[in-house]
Amino acid sequence: MNGRPRPTPPEPPDVPRKLNLSAMQIAAAVLLLIFPVLSIAGAFGESFGQADASGADVHLTAEYPTRLRFLLGSTMQVTVENTSRQTLSGLTLHFDRNYIDQFTAISFIPPVTDATDDAYLIALQDLAPGDSAVVTVQFQGSSYGRHQGRVWVAAGEQTAAELELSSIVFP
Fold first, then answer.
1. Residue 171: in which H helix or E strand, if any?
2. Which tens digit of pLDDT belongs to each residue from 126-145?
3. Could you write out the DSSP letters of every residue in 114-170?
4. What span, in angstroms and rounded, lies between the C-alpha atoms of 124 and 134?
5. How far apart are CA 44 and CA 67, in angstroms?
6. Rounded to an integer, what distance in angstroms lies between the CA atom of residue 159 and that of residue 119?
7. What is the three-class DSSP state of 25?
8. In this predicted structure, what is the pLDDT of residue 2?
């Protein structure tokens, strides 16, 4: 077009690269990195705990979820063992309603034989010395937060052994 050479722009100045973040931005970046790492490590996944208690004639064990996710199914297994030298009859396993009622889709195996304002009751068969009875409870977390309660075995009106349970339901 026209014979004049085009001028070239000047070279940019040498400026050292530097990340310039405020303290709040650094804290936010660290938090954004911590959550995926904790998630990969299983900090927010389901985990199980075990609780044990012994009385004069029985040993009570529960394997239950200490952490679970909202609306995901989970299982608790409670074992009652006769540690005496005689057959035990009339044992009842009690599940605290303050704990169990925080979940949905609840299923007991064997089924609940009675329910009170305080507990779900399961009458156990006679236990010979050294024998065990196992009760399985299936449920889903339906209420966020920490839920605490008890499981206990009773002979008549007297508590033979008692466990404290605590579970956290995550979103």
1. none
2. 999 999 999 999 999 999 99
3. EE-SSEEEEEPPPB-TT-EEEEEEEEEE-S-EEEEEEEEEEETTEEEEEEEEEEEEE
4. 9
5. 8
6. 13
7. helix
8. 66
Q: Is the dihedral of CA 118, 123, 126, 131 positive or negative?
A: negative
Place of tokens 């394997």: 63
CA-to-CA distance for 152 and 28, rounded, in angstroms?
Answer: 46
User: Which class for 130: exposed (0-12), middle (13-18), buried (19 or more C-beta within 10 A)?
Assistant: exposed
Given a contact cutoff of 8 angstroms between Cβ atoms, the answer to whether 152 and 94 are in contact is yes
How many angstroms separate the CA atoms of 157 and 164, rounded? Answer: 19
Q: What is the mean pLDDT of residues 102-109?
A: 96
Bridging pattern class, strands 158-170 and 119-123: unpaired
pLDDT at 15 over 90: no
> In the numeric block, which tokens belong to residue 146?
């920490």
Cβ(84)–Cβ(129) below 8 Å: yes
